[in-house]
Amino acid sequence: MTKEEKRFQEKIKAIQDTMFVLGGKWKLPIILSIYSGNKRFNDISNAIPKITNRVLSKELKHLEENLLIKRTVIDDYPVRIEYAVTDYAFGLEEVIKPMESWGKKHRKKISGK
Amino acid sequence: MTKEEKRFQEKIKAIQDTMFVLGGKWKLPIILSIYSGNKRFNDISNAIPKITNRVLSKELKHLEENLLIKRTVIDDYPVRIEYAVTDYAFGLEEVIKPMESWGKKHRKKISGK
DNA sequence: AGATCAGGTATCCTTTTGGATACAGGTATC
DNA sequence: GATACCTGTATCCAAAAGGATACCTGATCT
Fold this sequence. Notes:
Distance between the termini of chain A: 39 Å
Strand order of the largest sheet of chain A: 1-2
Helix content of chain A: 55-70%
Order of helices and strands of chain A: HHHHEEHH
CATH superfamily of chain A: Winged helix-like DNA-binding domain superfamily/Winged helix DNA-binding domain
CATH class of chain A: Mainly Alpha
CATH architecture of chain A: Orthogonal Bundle
Shape of chain A: globular
Radius of gyration of chain A: 18 Å
Mean pLDDT of chain A: 95
Oligomer: homodimer
CATH topology of chain A: Arc Repressor Mutant, subunit A
Number of domains of chain A: 1
Number of helices of chain A: 6
């Protein structure tokens, strides 16, 4: 493999990592929903009506593993669980802004083709 | 739906559009392979050994529809087909650079958790 | 004791994405 | 006329992502 090929492989891997973290149907809606103030499992579930419990649960785990949200057990009676976006998640701005802006430009380009 | 919710919906749609265009296992490798000088179907197929004809063909169509590559029929004998990245594709730089850089940072963050 | 609620799991199913293999159609070559 | 090359297409299959529905656990409420 040439040097250039290796650089490309790493570039591809990094970009695909980003898409692995944010990709799929629900990860962004969930992050933004929690950011908007929905802290509890059922709050989020109601705010995003079409997601099922199974998928919400899996996605929350994924986001927690990737340090974008934090799950806190609050130990009064009854025990509550609260989700919050982390400070680290705010670092996403640097990538989601360009993705949003390219996506918008691209939609215009394609629709007016 | 509140104003804020609507803004979020549009943000999400735009970001997911970007991921629709670039996402999946092969789209970036194909773009970079063509950019590196592989113009013919079989060149690309050989440069990316694990892709099958079926998938390569589908992905080339997707990239062409999204104006990132151009397919040209060259009419001597035998007829050849040449693929090239478009000028428009160079505009991806503004989005793939931040995606690459966030992806790299994130991998470090996660692996050293 | 029985009902209720929060925060999920468990099981099964459908859709989407990608892979394996064969081969087709048009031209050129032997 | 048979054979080979190029650019795909056709058919079938496997894996991954997502959806529907039921249910569980631990606590509190009546």
